[in-house]
Amino acid sequence: LELIEVEDGAQTGEARLIETDDLVFGYELLLRVVLREINFGRQRDLSTSTPIAGDHVEQQGFVVCTACGRVQEPQMHGHAAKSEHLPWCKVRTAGAPEEFVAVGLYRHNTSEAIRVLLPVADHEVSEVINSVRAALELGFRRKFGGQPAHLRITTMSEPAGASRQRFLVIYDTVPGGTGYLAALWRQGQLFAVMALALDAMKRCRCA
User: pTM (2 decimals)?
Assistant: First the structure.
């Protein structure tokens, strides 16, 4: 599981908003933004839900040996897996007692991004976010003949009164950005990407 936080004070470009009586859809270009990413471990390794940045994280993190850092395998069918250690670990070489700790992996990157506000109610979050994310990825594949390797799409949320606003964030993994998303914005191509995805879905035999 990964959580993205957009740092306050990010340098923003233009923002665009479509608003009707029953729909609000907005998106903005973030020209220089610090993206903080935390990996809380494998989705199947569950533990007690922990509130972090307004979301509830159930992943237990990566369980590692405090002496050598070897990641331990998760429990299978309620049975603990045999512990593992690197050859030079003092647990193996000196018979030291085993100690484990659960950790998350953290990184940050200053780059460019397009943040898309999703018109989603709290009870529809998972369905809408996954659908729009898949549609954007499909649109990119249709426009560029494949998914651009340096672009990723992830989610974020922030408080808005009693509820939360949900966003998809399309970001450039290259530090500093490549200018790719800014060019996409200036050329007005984000809606073209969405239109390609819609057309592909309409033409699909499963429709």
Answer: 0.72
